[in-house]
């Protein structure tokens, strides 16, 4: 392989598409000349030190091992897929998409990186960053749901418009958004990969948080399949035809008491009721759905 071809591989698409003769960093990170910024439709080589991270990045966690593997690949082949930035001033850029690639390039010791340069205001930056992450990064379902919600809230989009932006139908968008209505402990399990999107969709069909939390516990303890959870949901819904009649508004609680009640509900996987008088006296009620559920709660209490 000629030296010219090896250099092109090391530079990634910037060299292949632009056929630029500008020198770029070698494996030791040395730069022979300053990069020439071309038109916004082409790939440019820009200094990593001049790029600031996108403040609207929806992703907060990156797999360190995956970053190391990508960095090793970049050392051998160069960065194949350019990042996208917007120009702030003559020597400053703000990342729109590609933070994982940027982080890996830093680990690989690159001084410059291939990039597309766009002009965007803050709302456009947010929308582009969210769309890029939803479509191209391996986000978990809760991260996707949060990204969808941000696009609706901060980009003033309706669900139909959001679906068009991310190439998903309205029902898919709705299913993701409904995840955010599940109890926090269930959302955490989805985020951490303890239960799947299929499990979550089955739980969503139940309007009762107590039942949701109970089945959630069964999934974690018994490793239930999605089909089994769907069967449990159907059985519980058939057994509780008058659930709507029992749906009374809770009495007014102080913020402190409400937080204690919510924390207990998450701990026991049940809708805990905490009653307290002005004198500080009261009672804690922990409802259970079956003898097995009672046994689970007693075991948690070390009974």
Automatic annotation (TrEMBL):
GO biological process terms, semicolon-separated: chromosome segregation; positive regulation of sporulation resulting in formation of a cellular spore
Domain (ParB-like N-terminal): residue spans on this chain: 44-134
Xref: PANTHER family: CHROMOSOME-PARTITIONING PROTEIN PARB-RELATED (PTHR33375:SF1)
CDD domains cross-referenced by the UniProt entry: SPO0J_N
Name assigned to this protein: ParB-like partition protein
Gene Ontology MF: a single term: DNA binding
Gene3D superfamilies reported for this sequence: 1.10.10.2830, 3.90.1530.30
Record family assignment: Belongs to the ParB family.
Keywords: Chromosome partition, DNA-binding
Region (Disordered): 1-36
A Gene Ontology term for the protein's cellular component: chromosome
DNA-binding as UniProt keyword: yes
Compositionally biased residues, Polar residues: 27-36
Any matching Pfam family: ParB_C
């Amino acid at each position: 392989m000629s030296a010219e071809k090896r250099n092109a591989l090391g530079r990634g698409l910037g060299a292949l598409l632009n056929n630029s003769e500008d020198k770029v960093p070698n494996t030791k990170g040395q730069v022979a000349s300053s990069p020439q910024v071309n038109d916004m439709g082409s790939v440019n080589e820009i200094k990593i030190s001049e790029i600031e991270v996108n403040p609207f990045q929806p992703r907060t966690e990156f797999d360190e091992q995956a970053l190391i593997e990508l960095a090793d690949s970049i050392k051998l082949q160069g960065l194949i897929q350019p990042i996208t930035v917007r120009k702030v001033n003559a020597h400053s850029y703000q990342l729109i998409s590609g933070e994982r690639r940027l982080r890996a390039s830093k680990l690989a010791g690159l001084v410059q990186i291939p990039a597309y340069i766009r002009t965007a205001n803050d709302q456009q930056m947010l929308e582009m960053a969210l769309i890029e992450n939803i479509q191209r990064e391996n986000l978990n379902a809760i991260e996707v749901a949060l990204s969808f919600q941000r696009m609706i809230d901060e980009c003033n989009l309706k669900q139909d418009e959001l679906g068009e932006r991310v190439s998903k139908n309205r029902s898919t968008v709705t299913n993701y958004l409904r995840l955010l209505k599940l109890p926090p402990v269930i959302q955490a399990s989805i985020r951490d990969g303890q239960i799947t999107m299929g499990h979550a969709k089955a739980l969503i069909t139940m309007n009762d948080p107590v039942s949701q939390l109970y089945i959630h516990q069964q999934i974690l303890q018994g490793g239930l399949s999605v089909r089994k959870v769907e069967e449990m949901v159907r059985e519980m819904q058939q057994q509780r035809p008058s659930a709507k009649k029992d749906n009374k508004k809770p009495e007014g609680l102080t913020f402190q008491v409400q937080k204690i009640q919510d924390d207990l509900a998450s701990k026991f996987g049940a809708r805990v009721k905490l009653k307290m008088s002005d004198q500080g006296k009261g009672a804690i009620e922990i409802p259970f759905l079956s003898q097995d559920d009672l046994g689970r709660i007693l075991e948690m209490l070390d009974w």
